[in-house]
Amino acid sequence: MPLKSILVAFSGDPASCTALQFALRLQQHHTAHVTGVVWHGPVPLESRHRAFLSRDVATMLVGREDEAAQRIAAEFAAQVAANGDPARAGFIDLHEMETFSLPRHARAYDLVVMTRHAAEVGREHAEVRPDVVALRSGRPVITVPDHHSGQMPSHIALGWDGKRAATRALGDLLHVLGGAQKVTLVSVAKTKEPQPEAGDDALAYLARHGIEAEWLHRVPGRGRITQTLLDTCAEIGADMLAMGAYEHSKFTEDLLGGVTRDILTDARLPVMMSH
Prior knowledge:
By secondary structure, the chain is α/β, with parallel strands linked by helices. It folds into 2 domains: 5-144, 3-Layer(aba) Sandwich (Rossmann fold), CATH 3.40.50.620; 155-274, Rossmann fold (3-Layer(aba) Sandwich). The chain is 41% helix and 19% strand. It is built from 10 helices and 10 strands. It has helices at residues 14-30, 44-49, 55-83, 102-106, 130-137, 164-176, 200-208, 225-236, 250-256, 259-266, and strands spanning 5-9, 33-38, 89-93, 111-115, 141-144, 155-159, 182-188, 212-218, 240-244, 271-274. A 10-stranded mixed sheet has the order 3-2-1-4-5-10-9-6-7-8, with helices on both faces. The longest helix is centred in the first third of the chain and has 29 residues, at 55-83. The two termini are 18 Å apart.
């Protein structure tokens, strides 16, 4: 199924402008519709001290948020006019749709594009973690690092262990490949030899779709699996990493650490996460 509907979490700060530029490249390649979205929860002052605030102060706080959303929408429109197709673009303020969260809204789109920290300092109440969006929406999420060039990826590394989440990422990346010419499956495990079922079928699957692919197996050194995976991306010149998110439970990774969380912290290239 072709990529036709892209949701971009946009807050107007430089990092989210970079994410928007990436989404607009996808728009051009796929002739897709791009929808910008701003989400903001209750202002911390309002949520913590609501019982002690006068009606006038509460109204002022809401008014300030509405003004900020209007400025963000104007900046989105300007960016699209300069670098994309305004006829295939729209903007939504989810604050006005109280029954919707960003992950829930994302279910009606093919792909979500966002920065790893969707809010600038002072607007933390507007931040939504991309791994949470991937986990709760069921849609792939591409996180774009700050100051990325916006170029479409030409060589995608797929973190591959043969499990369900990685398999979902394998299917999802076919919709967002764009101008990519090559995919490298990267498996990381303590065994020197990869498991026989880990990559052969995936290579055949990509070949049937006309995509050049190879499979690399790496044994992690003293560092974490995350570092081995990112080092391999740098070694082979990959310009995007695709991976499954939270093969283990999110609670376990939040408590003990894990690849999903570490990748979001350490990666310096675009990352597509699927769950």
